[in-house]
Amino acid sequence: MSVLALDAEGLYRELLRGVTTLRTPDARLVGITSGGAWLAERLQKDLGLGGDAGVISSAMHRDDFAKRGLAAAAQTRLDFDVDGAQIVLLDDVLYTGRTIRAVLNELFDFGRPAWVRLAVLVDRGGRELPVQPDFAAARVNLPAAQSLELARSDEGRFSFKVEAH
Question: Average model confidence (pLDDT) for the chain?
Answer without folding.
Answer: 92
